[in-house]
Amino acid sequence: MADSEQPTNFGGLRVAAFESRFAPEMARLIEKSGGQPLVAPSMREIPLEENPAALAFAEKLFAGQCDVLILLTGVGTRTLVEAIETRYPREKILEGLRRVLLVARGPKPVAALRSFGITPQVIVPEPNTWRQILQALDGAIPLPGQQVAVQEYGIPNREFLAGLAGRGANVMRVPVYKWALPEDLGPLRNAIQEISAGNVHVVLFTNAQQVQHLLQVAGKEGVIEGLRRGVARTVICSIGPVASEALEKQGFLVDFEPEHSKMGIFVKEAARMSRNLVASKRRPVITIETPAAAADRLRDSLFLRACRLEPTERTPVWLMRQAGRYMKEYRDLRERVGFLDLCKNSELAAEITVSAVQRLGVDAAILFADLLLVVEPMGFELEYSKGEGPIIHNPARTAADVDRVRAADPADLGYVYESVRKVRAALPAHLPLIGFVGAPFTLASYLVEGEGTRNAVLTKSLMYRDPGAWRAMMEKLVTSLAGYANGQVAAGAQAIQIFDSWVGCLSPRDYRDYVLPFTQSLIRQISAVPVIHFGTGTATLLELMKEAGGQVIGLDWRVNLDEAWARLGKVAIMGNFDPVTLFADAKIIRSQVERILAQAGGRPGHIFNLGHGILPGTPVENVIALVEAVKELSCRSTEA
């Protein structure tokens, strides 16, 4: 059913919500949208009786030792002033606040500040998540060396604090109140019983702490497994990414998240979506998220099942360069942080990786890194010139040059493995992470040419002129890349993609003689995870690529998917949407998705992707439209 045809209200469904401060308003909104409300306040705010952190912040503020103050809530803003006011006069407090850069997370702290006669310099746009705060700061002030205070509410947001620290800020936490369970637990206990009994159709979460308190009370009542089963049978609606992350970390899959995190919009949109979701939902519940259970969930993910040629409910989709220059948030960050510095900062690399997954709703993450990181520990001087791509300042073009090349020590790439660990910890338990390396030929091309190449003149000259030097270089690359790939797997990657970006310049004979043995050796040395073997311009090389190895063969857009699959036989296929099509309108994008899905024919083993990476300038809304079209249309074909 198209969006315009979907019911516009809950249609009598029973809707549970856990809003506390605005519980009556939430009940009225649900009723107005045609639902039967079951609103059970789940938490209350308690100001800290003694707050040395607030007073310590005040001393730094008055001494001029605070540059930025981030205010996360309206109540917290007022509570902070009141806490400091127990020792200092209000006018002195307000004078100090006027001297620092004030960052307000949305309209409520703005209103609180204006009640004191102060206007913040930075107002964080919707959906007001911690990621939007970081993006707003990236556009407002260089953070390295800045003293940044954060007014916290409830519990500290470790990822947000790490994002500030990763940008070089000196962070000071200023807690002002804590979350506690409501004094009257009766409504919450009743809601838990009704959900467990299957008498609730929709649940609405407007705060991450609600998830914790719901499970905490269910645990005290001894009904946590019943609650988990009941929640899994409902339509789970989350007001934004932070609440969604809390739900997913507990093993609950979010069905709906609005574009704007206003309570009225949230309820209205949930009402519009819920009736169809209630009718179609068939999701299992994960009752105990042990490490073994998490591993099982990953193994049963759409992406990994497709890698194994197993049937899936719909076609999994992820996109090469899904975190990149087409996103404004990434461009703003790049204005302040050099590309290599970004790759080597595990906090920022992890943040970029996870943000893209959440923004697009794809079925796998791919690590934000670069093909050439491995060449520095091999003895090469790497630089990224703005607008010109990578430059190798000491290329290897002779046998003597090759002699000085050393195999990389995997330990020298520890910052990449740390990024993998942080991404894995931040991703939902069911979502796989793909690591990657460059293929030996593509890496060799960069090392010989000194930069990107299309014709590989110098590379092929060395290959033909001195086969011994070529073999020595490729063997060193294989050793380096195998260690690097296995380091990513050990750190938490569930698959490895091998990118052979330049291999399309070779004839089939040259590929067999000069490339296949080395790529094959690399793939055989990678630990027991699926390997995606991808190249561009490879229409004449596909059978040889399959011979070289890989559970999944990636296709560019220059070959029809059905014809390529017929040539390759029993292997999973990834691709092959032309990335330029993402500049067209949504109707064209949808028609091209239909065409590729028709060529795949519902066969197990198809992973939807582009024929290469997302191009700079691509409209983000078109990328999201592509992902949504794949999900919808492949579900439809599976049901058919």
From TrEMBL:
Homodimer. Its main location: cytoplasm. It comes from the Bacteria. CDD domains: HemD, URO-D. The keyword Cytoplasm applies. NCBIfam families: hemE (TIGR01464). PROSITE patterns: UROD_1, UROD_2. Substrate binds at residues 321-325, 370, 446, 501, 612. The gene is hemE. Pfam families: HEM4 (PF02602), URO-D (PF01208). It catalyses: uroporphyrinogen III + 4 H(+) = coproporphyrinogen III + 4 CO2. Keywords: Cytoplasm, Decarboxylase, Lyase, Porphyrin biosynthesis. It is found in: Cytoplasm, Cytosol. This is Uroporphyrinogen decarboxylase.
